[in-house]
Design goal:
Number of helices: 6
Radius of gyration: 18 Å
Order of helices and strands: EEHEHEEEEHHEHEEEEHEEEE
Structural class: alpha+beta
CATH topology: Double-stranded beta-helix
Strand content: 25-35%
Number of strands: 16
Helix content: 10-25%
Shape: globular
Largest sheet: 8 strands, mixed
Number of domains: 1
CATH architecture: 4-Layer Sandwich
C-alpha cells in the first residue's frame, strides 16, 4: 500500500501529495507511483520540503531529465536550477502571464518544478489551467476546425518579454538568442496518456501557420479566453518549502502579481520534453 495520501485541489486538475519526505530520497517504486499521480492530476504539490539544491535535483532526476533554461543562468554549480524571483523594488513578476513554458522551442519541456524558498506575507499564488479540460469542453465542430492547424510560437512577444527583463538584466545568459520560434500542433496528443490538449497560449503563440497575425487573431483570442475559464483551473497558495510539479504538455500556469513591496524567491527546474504531435 502507498504510504502517502492524495488530496485533490479542484475538479479539473491539481492534487497535494501528503506524507512524502523528498529529502529522504525516493525508491524506484515510489518515484513511479508519484509519476502516475502526476500524469493523472496534471500538477502535483508537496508541502514542507526543506531541500538542498542536491536533493531538489535528485527529485527532478527521478521524474525526468533536467535541462537548462535558454534565457537565465542557473545557480553556481547547478546550471539547471534557476532563480525565479521578484524583489521588493520590482513591479513585474517573472512569467506573469498565462503560458505553457517555452513553447517557442522545437522540444518544449515535459514539465517544470518550482520550490518556494522565500514567499511574501500574502499573495503570490500560482494559477494552473487544464488544457485537457479546455479541449474537451469545445464543440465537435470547433475540434474538427482545430485538428489540422499548426501555430507558430515566438519568445519575442512583447507582453512576455517584459516579464523576463528584470531577470535577464541581473542573471541573463550571454549565449541567449534574441528570438526562438517553433511550429507546433494547435491540438497536441499527450505522449504518455494519449489525451488531447489545446497547445496554444497567449504568451508565445503568434499566429496559425499559413495565416497572417490579423487573420489568426479572432480565433486565437477566443481560444485564449476559453483556455483559462475558472472551471478549468486550480489555485495554489505557497509557503516556504512548498513544491509544485506540473505537466507542461497539458497545463498552463500564471503566477499572480499581487505582492508589490515584498520579495518572492523560488528555485525552478525544467525537465526535457519531446516534439509535440
Amino acid at each position: 500500500m502507498p504510504q502517502y495520501q492524495i488530496q485533490r485541489l479542484a475538479g479539473a486538475l491539481g492534487a497535494e501529495i501528503l506524507g512524502v519526505d523528498l529529502a529522504a530520497g525516493l525508491t524506484e517504486s515510489l518515484a513511479a507511483q508519484i509519476r502516475q499521480v502526476f500524469l493523472e492530476h496534471q500538477v502535483v504539490f508537496f508541502r514542507d520540503q526543506q531541500l538542498t539544491s542536491e536533493q531538489f535535483l535528485a527529485f527532478a532526476k527521478a521524474m525526468g531529465q533536467p535541462v537548462e533554461y535558454p534565457f537565465v543562468k542557473g545557480l553556481e554549480g547547478h546550471p539547471v536550477i534557476i532563480e525565479v524571483k521578484k524583489l521588493e523594488h520590482e513591479r513585474t513578476n517573472f512569467g506573469g502571464i498565462w503560458h505553457s513554458d517555452t513553447t517557442y522551442l522545437e522540444q518544449p519541456p515535459m514539465g517544470s518544478m518550482l520550490l518556494a524558498r522565500e514567499v511574501p506575507p500574502y499573495g503570490g499564488d500560482t494559477l494552473f489551467a487544464s488544457q485537457y479540460a479546455a479541449y474537451e469542453a469545445l464543440s465537435e465542430g470547433m475540434r474538427q476546425l482545430l485538428a489540422p492547424l499548426k501555430a507558430i510560437s515566438s519568445s519575442a512577444k512583447a507582453d512576455v518579454s517584459k516579464t523576463r527583463e528584470d531577470r535577464i538584466a541581473s542573471d541573463g545568459r550571454a549565449d541567449a538568442r534574441k528570438d526562438y520560434t517553433a511550429t507546433h500542433p494547435v491540438v497536441r496528443t499527450h505522449p504518455e496518456t494519449g489525451r488531447k490538449a489545446l497547445y496554444v497560449n497567449v504568451a508565445h503563440t503568434v499566429r496559425f501557420e499559413g495565416m497572417t497575425e490579423e487573420e489568426s487573431a479572432p480565433l486565437l483570442q477566443f481560444l485564449h479566453r476559453h483556455q483559462v475559464k475558472p472551471e478549468f483551473t486550480c489555485r495554489f497558495g505557497w509557503r516556504a518549502g512548498s513544491l509544485a510539479f506540473w505537466d507542461n504538455r497539458c497545463v498552463q500556469h500564471n503566477p499572480v502579481n499581487d505582492y508589490h513591496g515584498h520579495r518572492r524567491l523560488m528555485h525552478r527546474i525544467t525537465l526535457a520534453g519531446d516534439t509535440p504531435r
